[in-house]
What does this fold into?
Amino acid sequence: MIRFDNVHKSYGDLKVLKGINAEIGKGNVVCLIGPSGSGKSTLLRCVNGLETYQDGRIEIEGELVSALAPSIHKVRTRVAMVFQRFNLFPHRTALENVMEGPVYVLKENREEVRARAKELLTRVGLEDKLDVYPSNLSGGQQQRVAIARALAMRPEAILFDEPTSALDPEMVGEVLSVMRSLAEEHMTMLVVTHEIQFAREVADTVLFLDGGQIVEEGPAASVLHNPQHERTQDFLRRVTHPV
It folds into this structure.
């Protein structure tokens, strides 16, 4: 569904992505792991045009992704994104945040959207928080609202940019539980994460990035249990057995 063909991205003289080649099949969960600064989030943001890549090609079901093309607005309705810092509208309730995209971007009927938004918030365990503002929600609850908001656009795929890294440890599980349910329903997901156990349990494929390159890739069980590259071995040793 999503294809990267020799993708390069630089900020001035700093090369962030150095020839990324990968494919993500429809209904698959792909986890991007690697040290900070390896290019994981930048790659994700290139998929829906939040960043502009200089060379190569990104395609979604054969359609070119370009931040500068008018079609990028259509891409963003097909591929939703859940951010590290939630990015909810502070002046809107949980229900209003979920309704925002379908009403104002897709121009859907407000009452139909309201009913669907309530169903989605119930699905992520927030049926009692419909009229609550983000400032009165925990971090885990805000992130679940953000996931419901992404689902409200009926996306074909969802990009997750370290969705649990800003959460207190006890709130991580509630967000990962929602993501597991999406994986069971065969939602196509590209996930930047440091949650190695989640990647073991849920990912079909793991890509290990370092220095803007894919150093190792393959089935999750293979990469995470029997990594072949020394750099992958060192990284996994550090994150699973921190000093």
